[in-house]
Amino acid sequence: QKEVEQDPGPLSVPEGAIVSLNCTYSNSAFQYFMWYRQYSRKGPELLMYTYSSGNKEDGRFTAQVDKSSKYISLFIRDSQPSDSATYLCAMSQGFNDMRFGAGTRLTVKP
Amino acid sequence: GAVVSQHPSRVICKSGTSVKIECRSLDFQATTMFWYRQFPKQSLMLMATSNEGSKATYEQGVEKDKFLINHASLTLSTLTVTSAHPEDSSFYICSAVPGLAGGYFFGPGTRLTVL
Fold first, then answer.
1. A32–chain B Cβ distance below 8 A for any pair
2. Which of A49, A96, B37, B65 has its CA 20 to 30 A from that of A33?
3. SS3 A82
4. What is the pLDDT of residue A56?
5. Does B98 touch chain A if contact means CB atoms closer than 8 Å?
6. What angle do CA B32, B35, B41 make, to 5 degrees?
């Protein structure tokens, strides 16, 4: 079993839809949780950063962490074609041990 | 947010030559930087952890004599692909951590094509 599981998709939604992206993990020691967005041929861009459990909202993006279920989510409201990208979840226990999900390819159709 | 740059953004070279890629943290100091490789439509694969002033730590299966890493200062790490071959063609990305409360920040990546 991989430490971090993420459905690679692809996921296609119409413009304006709510997008839900998820990851599960097996290491209960993870305490830092991140979501990255990566456009084609670009480096990943940090979208959301969460420590421990709870919700965090930033504009149209909401990140949720449920440590009891070892499950994290990213919600995108009012999705736009510009949101089309690959979304990577990442998590770490400490400073130098980040683990990435496989990434989910999202396409938002106009 | 913190800014990480990479140079060059794109390089094409002949088989057998060596290529150096630079990773710089522009507005923070990074005692640790990371190097990843990413093949098309695949996720990031950690190659090595670069530590300022000490030897890099390589992931299993990554040839340390082929992928030379030098972290000479708190803002610069370099990856040299020695005697590059077509199978080394990939997207190389570095990341750096400004501190515990910020996550990792990635460079824009370097696309290497070996002919």
1. yes
2. B37
3. helix
4. 93
5. no
6. 145
Convert the pLDDT of each residue in A65-92 to its tens digit: 999 999 999 999 999 999 999 999 999 8
Which of B6, B43, B93 lies nearest to residue A102, judging by beta carbons? Answer: B43
Q: List CB contacts (< 8 A) between B43 and chain A.
A: 88, 100-103
The listed range with the strongest mean pLDDT (A45-54, B68-77, B85-94) is: B85-94
Q: Is A88 on the interface with B (CB under 8 A)?
A: yes
Q: Would you put residue B108 in left (φ > 0), alpha (ψ -120 to 50) or beta? A: alpha
Are B97 and A34 within 8 A, CB to CB? no
Q: Are strands B110-114 and B10-13 parallel, antiparallel or unpaired?
A: parallel
Query: Residues 6 or more apart from A59 whose CB is under 8 A from it?
Result: none
For residue range A39-65, list pLDDT tens digits in order: 988 999 999 988 888 899 999 999 999
pLDDT score for A45: 93
Average pLDDT value over all residues in chain B = 91
Q: How far apart are CA B97 and CA B31, in angstroms?
A: 8
Averaged pLDDT for residues B49-76: 91
Q: Count Cβ atoms within 10 A of the Cβ of residue B39 and give its class: 0-12 exposed, 13-18 middle, 19 or more buried.
A: exposed
